[in-house]
Amino acid sequence: MLRKQYRLLTRLPAHSSRIYKIPYFTVRVSKNNVSVSRFGFVVSKKIDKRSVVRNKLKRQMSSCIQKHLGKIQQSLDMSFFLKKEVLGLPKEGLAEEIELFLKKEKLLQL
Q: Which residues, 6 or more positions from 100, have their beta carbon under 8 angstroms from its beta carbon?
């Protein structure tokens, strides 16, 4: 689980955020006024009605982000909206998809 300072607890404003669509998730990214990047994960009941499955997906996403936490640019808020396709993906595949997204959109520090 991410430490509290890295968790995004509020909604992002729609007017100032960029949206990226990936086959497994959609990401909304915006700037913040804090010195650290914050992350939020949304798994709707459309994906699975069982809270156990939804919470497991959130934990997997959180652990994948935590591996790259030191390399991600500072002062960003990111909300990940998972899609149903993510259910068939193993944790390693999910980690690869997140890493590819971060590299492609140049959100990693060099």
A: none
